[in-house]
Each structure stands twice: as structure tokens, then as C-alpha cells.
Design brief:
The chain is an all-alpha fold. Helices cover 81% and strands 0% of the residues. It has five helices and no strands.
């Protein structure tokens, strides 16, 4: 469930082609989304190492910074393409909204289905670091 958003991104390409939607919107949104996903993976790895060392502040800080960074990266990319071509900006914004929705739903379902040992660092932080609750 973790990478369902990337599957939706792949499926969106033929939809953009068949519907003759602006490819600039797809390209910019896809590039920003992939970069943001890579940023989140790196942040999760850093947070996991920080939690293993017992440094919850570092883990929380990097997860917060990466979440804000992802939002700004995707929003600015769509804004910039929208300033040059309104239709491309709209297409990119709609695609980004779908990707965010699928990403959040996938995270929620994944966390509900995951065992305590398999949870992401942000879930362990929320539960007191060990994944066993307070």
C-alpha cells in the first residue's frame, strides 16, 4: 500500500495521453512527486536510525521538515507550470490532488494493517518510540 501513489502516477500517463491533456502538467507533477517521494524515503530512513539511537527529537525534526518540504516542492512546481500555461497547471493540480489522496489513504490503510514491528518511524514516534504504546 505504501507505493500505490506511484502506481497511480504511472496509470495517469496514458490517461493524459488519451485525453490530450497538457503533458507539461503531467511532467512537472510527476517529477515533483517522485522527488518528494524520494525525500520521504530518505527522511524515513534517517528517522529510523535516529530512533534506534534513541534520538526522538532528530527523528521528529526530519519527518516534520520532509513533510513540509514535500508540500512546498509539489505546490511550487504546479504553481510555476500554471503561471506559464494555465491548462497545464490545472491538469497538474488535479493529478497532485489525486496523488495526495491516494498517498494518504495508502498510508492510513498500511498503518492499520501493519504489525507494531513493521510500522514506519512516524508511527513509532507517535506511540512513544517502541511501537508498543505508552
Amino acid at each position: 500500500m505504501r507505493f500505490t501513489d506511484l502506481a497511480v502516477l504511472v496509470v495517469a500517463l496514458p490517461v493524459f495521453l488519451l485525453a490530450e491533456l497538457p503533458m507539461a502538467g503531467y511532467g512537472v507533477c510527476a517529477a515533483a512527486w517522485i522527488a518528494a517521494s524520494a525525500m520521504q524515503i530518505a527522511a524515513d530512513r534517517h528517522a529510523k536510525r535516529s530512533l534506534a539511537r534513541g534520538n526522538r527529537n532528530s527523528a521528529l525534526g526530519v519527518l516534520a521538515a520532509s513533510t513540509l518540504g514535500r508540500v512546498w516542492l509539489v505546490a511550487l512546481a504546479i504553481l510555476l507550470v500554471g503561471l506559464s500555461d494555465r491548462d497545464a497547471g490545472l491538469a497538474g493540480a488535479v493529478l497532485a490532488a489525486v496523488l495526495v489522496t491516494v498517498h494518504l489513504a495508502g498510508m492510513a490503510i498500511g498503518r492499520l494493517m501493519a504489525s507494531d514491528e513493521g510500522r514506519t518511524p512516524s508511527a513509532r514516534l507517535h506511540q512513544g518510540g517502541s511501537g508498543r504504546g505508552i
